[in-house]
Design a protein that fits this description.
CATH superfamily of the largest domain: P-loop containing nucleotide triphosphate hydrolases
Order of helices and strands: HEHEHHEHEHEHHHHHHHH
Number of domains: 3
Oligomer: single chain
CATH architecture of the largest domain: 3-Layer(aba) Sandwich
Structural class: alpha/beta
Strand order of the largest sheet: 2-3-4-1-5
Radius of gyration: 21 Å
Helix content: 40-55%
Mean pLDDT: 91
Low-confidence stretches: none
Distance between the termini: 33 Å
CATH class of the largest domain: Alpha Beta
Largest sheet: 5 strands, parallel
Number of helices: 14
Number of strands: 5
Shape: globular
Length: about 300
Amino acid sequence: MIGRKAEVAELRERYESGRAELVAIYGRWRVGKTFLIDETFQNQITFRHAGVSPVDEDKKGLLKRQLEQFYYSLRSQGMTGIKRPGSWMEAFFQLEMFLQEKDQSERQLVFIDELPWLDTPRSGFLSAFEGFWNNWACHRKNVMVIVCGSASSWILDNLINNHGGLYGRVTCEIRLRPFSLGECEEFLKERDISFTRYDIVQSYMALGGIPYYLGYLKRNMSLAQNLDALFFEKGAKLEDEFRRLFVSIFDNPPFMQRIIRAVAERNQGLTRSEILRKLNIKDGEVFAKALNALVNSDFVLKYVPFDHRCRV
């Protein structure tokens, strides 16, 4: 595994802490959150589940599909004698029973991937998860729950900065960032891809240091040929990635894309007021939350120049 040494050390420390742990890992889509957990805890996961992606899904009936998939995860990992849950309260009660059946006083690791996808409108998911943790899991010293999410703002708002029943419950948070330029070079060398350092910088600018995208690069092609194959050829692997990325992370993809396109038109960035004028919209809570979501998801950088209060 390239990089991630600090994250691995933190996760191993929490695993061996001897107390209940609730770990929240967030970072942009394709950055390697699932890979990090798989590599760190090989054959040590008691129960794992991944939310159903909302991309290309009919939103009507999504709650039913999420619950059905959770049921299949329980069944495929050894639980018998249960029916499909009709609510998240029932689903988490089934998870409690599953863990109690498996309990041999050793560490039990629960990994729920893409947790925000489970929180569909009017599903009651967050209340059920809160009940699972506060009423059961946090009282069991051998339970460790790891949740991941590409919708960073959801993780921050609903778990890490929660002001309700989950306030202060997260025992460890990890923001997984894209590779640094040096880690990109190490990754390419590991794959025996001989790019010049100039090409490595160019690839970093084009692919953003995202391991998943870097993994598509082929050693027998130049950088230009690789990028053409990834984005511009007919049927290119990443030709629809821009749309899928926004749909998977944000509740209002078109609005978020408008902000991104506005910022991208000028390479030195835009101030908040300039973005508002460019989009012809008013300032307010909706815009503020959208900007924070983009910053937290590593789509834009927020910085304060020497002669201004704030700039995005």
